[in-house]
Amino acid sequence: MFPAADRRIAAGLLILRFFLGIFLLQWSVEKLILPGATARIAQNFYSVSLPTEVAYALGVAELILSLGLLLGAYRTMSYGLSLLVHTVTVVVSWRQLFDPYGLAKVGNHLWIATWPTWGGFAALFLMRNWDVYTVDGWRQSRRALPSDQAMRL
Q1: Rounded Cα–Cα distance for residues 57 and 38 (Å)
Q2: Half-sphere exposure of 84 (CA within 13 A, CB side)
Q3: Which of 54, 51, 55 minimizes the C-alpha distance to 32?
Q4: Are 21 and 37 within 8 A, CB to CB?
Q5: How many distinct helices (H) and strands (E) make up the chain?
């Protein structure tokens, strides 16, 4: 197979990907079951009026992205888009990030969690080729086998 260090790296990336996928998944589910909350968030953070139908469409798109991330499918695209989605969240919440203790009555310290989460998304994207316990990794391993062995998998 591959050396022990490679297995530990792959296992660490699997854990990171799983929890980042769950993190993103919960936001997509919220968009689908509470579209009104999505509209309020869009208004407050993006200054955009969001119809309910658009909230549902965003929820479905983010659900597909979350599942791609969870499964490690199309790693460059799914990890990159996940990083981009979270980057937008971090950028639009800059007021909350610079007032972590609510001194200016804007934010609270829970917003600081967006920074290490962003770091996790960035690290996963940068190390995507070592994240082999994925759908993409499985497809790559099948391609490396002779066709009769691949058919038995």
Answers
A1: 11
A2: 8
A3: 55
A4: no
A5: 8, 0
- Decide: 20 and 131 in contact? Cβ < 8 Å: no
Unique residue bearing structure tokens 């309020």 = 40
Q: What is the DSSP string of 43-56?
A: HHHH-----HHHHH
Q: Per-residue pLDDT tens for 33-64? A: 999 999 998 898 888 899 999 999 999 999 99
Residue whose C-alpha is closest to residue 107's, from 90, 87, 84, 119: 90
d(CA 29, CA 122): 23
Other residues' Cβ atoms within 10 Å of the Cβ of residue 47:
8
- pLDDT, tens digit, 9 for 90 and up, residues 99-129: 877 777 776 777 888 999 999 999 999 999 9
Work out the angle between the directed axes of helices 4-33 and 52-71 (0-180°, nearest 10): 170
User: 30: which 2 tokens?
Assistant: 């919220």
Location of structure tokens 């391609």: 143
What angle (nearest 5°) sits at the alpha carbon of residue 98, between those of residues 78 and 79?
A: 5
